[in-house]
Design brief:
about 80 residues, alpha+beta, Spermidine Synthase, Chain: A, domain 2, 4 strands, elongated
Length: about 80
């Protein structure tokens, strides 16, 4: 009997979390070819750099249904000059 109760409670907890109710998702790292649904960009951030190199930047955005997502992607640091 206790096993059934524990199993049922566990299944309900997993379903609750997977629906996104009360849970925040971790940023997803971009992979080439990923399909993105970006309706509005909220913020773009990257670490401060003194050297021109590839950095991991983060984009926070809303999709077409209004859900917020965070995406990590690689780019050249802002310190890099594109016109040299």
């Amino acid at each position: 009997m206790n096993m059934r109760l524990w199993l049922g409670t566990s299944m309900m907890a997993v379903a609750f979390i997977s629906c996104g109710v009360g849970a925040q998702t971790a940023p997803v790292e971009y992979e080439y070819g990923m399909k993105l649904d970006v309706a509005k960009v909220i913020s773009l951030t990257e670490p401060d750099q003194q050297v021109c190199q590839v950095v991991k930047a983060q984009m926070t955005y809303l999709d077409s249904s209004g859900q917020q997502h965070e995406l990590i992607y690689r780019k050249l640091a802002n310190v890099c000059s594109y016109y040299d």
